[in-house]
Specification:
Elements (H helix, E strand, L loop, with lengths): L5 E7 L5 H14 L4 E5 L5 H12 L4 H25 L3 E5 L2 H11 L4 H12 L6 E6 L2 H11 L10 H17 L4 E5 L4 H12 L4
Parallel strand pairs: 1-3, 1-4, 2-3, 4-5
Helix pairs in contact: 1-8, 2-3, 3-5, 4-7
């Protein structure tokens, strides 16, 4: 058996700049000869993408929403994440369970104990090795998104909602400082990228 891969997740409010920077990191890792599996939540599998479409476009109770996120996650872990890590690939996931704590618990008030129970049921001991938290002012993120595309059900929430999401992420990062790396994305893309890559060099 070769060495197990590295599981990295990317978090932050909508429009924080995740896609932009994951592109850069993926390119760098491939140049280094690393096998990269790029994926996202909700989604990552055919069934997960079908669940994603429901989550982003249908209104629903927060319990339904949370269960659907974990249903998609169970597929994602068993079919994509675990097999990739087992063969030594690096998995780059645009969002994972920290997003459930930030959006459903932090911003919508869903009880953390329910998420903890689902996390343990669905993930067992699986946790990301590193989590990059893209931290940006909600007003700046909203402005960037409005320039580029039509917004989905989560993205049309108000600034207050995203302030709560951001705060929940920061609180979680403070509780688990060795897993989290906070990246200030209020700044120029090139600067943000340099900082991310210099952190990523430490993970190799
Ligand atoms: N540091 C930056 N400065 C200015 N604009 C940026 C920066 N980073 C990203 N952008 C632009 O902001 C928009 C949103 O960025 P991006 O799609 O990477 O965010 P995201 O976090 O992936 O969003 P989502 O959560 O919706 O997937 C894009 O048009 C992107 O080019
Ligand atoms: Mg994105």
């Amino acid at each position: 058996m070769g060495q197990r891969g590295v599981f990295i997740t990317f978090e932050g409010i909508d429009g924080a700049g995740k896609t932009t920077q994951i592109d850069a990191l993926e390119q760098w890792l491939k140049q280094e000869g690393v096998e990269v599996v790029r994926t996202r939540e909700p989604g990552g599998t055919p069934l997960g993408e079908a669940i994603r479409a429901m989550l982003l476009h249908e209104g629903m109770h927060v319990t339904t929403e949370t269960l659907l996120f974990f249903a998609a996650r169970a597929e994602h872990i068993s079919r994509v994440i675990e097999p990739a890590l087992a063969r030594g690939a690096w998995v780059l996931s645009d969002r994972f369970t920290d997003a459930t704590y930030a959006y459903q618990v932090g911003a919508k008030g869903y009880p953390a104990r329910h998420v903890e129970a689902l996390e343990s049921l669905v993930q067992g001991d699986l946790q990301p090795d590193h989590t990059v938290l893209f931290d940006v002012e909600p007003e700046i993120a909203a402005e960037r998104l409005a320039r580029v595309r039509e917004l989905d059900r989560f993205e049309t929430e108000d600034v207050e909602f995203f302030r709560n999401v951001r705060q929940a992420y920061l609180t979680r990062a403070a509780q688990m400082p060795s897993r989290f790396f906070i990246l200030n994305t209020n700044r120029d893309k090139e600067l943000v990228c340099e900082e991310l890559l210099s952190e990523a060099r430490k993970w190799r």
